[in-house]
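Record type: monomer structure entry
Structure origin: computed from sequence
Chain ID: A
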Amino acid sequence: MLKGKTALVTGSTSGIGLGIAKALAVQGANIVLNGFGDVDGAKAELEALGARVAYHGADMSKPADIEDMMRYAAAQFERVDILVNNAGIQHVARIEHFPTEKWDAIIAINLSSAFHATRLALPAMQAADKGKGWGRIINVASVHGLVGSAEKSAYVAAKHGIVGLTKVTALENATSGVTCNAICPGWVLTPLVQKQVDAKAAAGGISNAAATQQLLGEKEPSLQFTTPEELGALAVFLCSPAGNNVRGVAWNMDGGWAAQ
């Protein structure tokens, strides 16, 4: 379905980003990876699916790096057809104790990077298909783009901002073939979340399974994690012809979290 299209996925060497990149690769898309961690392993997984893969290690807190990444992607594959803004970091603390440098970093990576990548991707998307436009911008927000949680002020602010940016991007391109939507996951069992489960188990002297149920039970009524594969399937839908008129949506995949 996506043969000949190019997808740039930020924060894609593991977890949600890699899951989305793999789902798009299965549909024939070229992939531009970004992020830290096991780059060679991520490239190998995607190449095994038949994808053409490039990598750029842009620091998503730096606009100049993002500009270089977008130029690199265009040089490798002509243009970015699908932009998945997924890069993100987290820090937990009460507002009065929240380090200002952590606030600045979270806003830069979780919110501002999506703005910079979007503004740079849009011109080529708008010019595609003989000026009719074709493009897909998918912002990986969070259920925290819809509801709040204590001690996550910067993350919640950034993710609410991502939902707002999504709506404005969609409205500004509403009569073209360029769409913009947000995916809002609840708990996803990424390596980062597994560390939280492990820490909860160690602190409470309980099993990993009990710690998992405790973590999920606090917020997610389904008592099950959303998977990167499920999020990838949703991204594929948004890129498909069936998603042509899905615009400005914040689509939560959160096991009922926001329904409470």
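Annotation 1: The first strand starts at residue 6 and ends at 9.
Annotation 2: Residues 189-225 form one domain.
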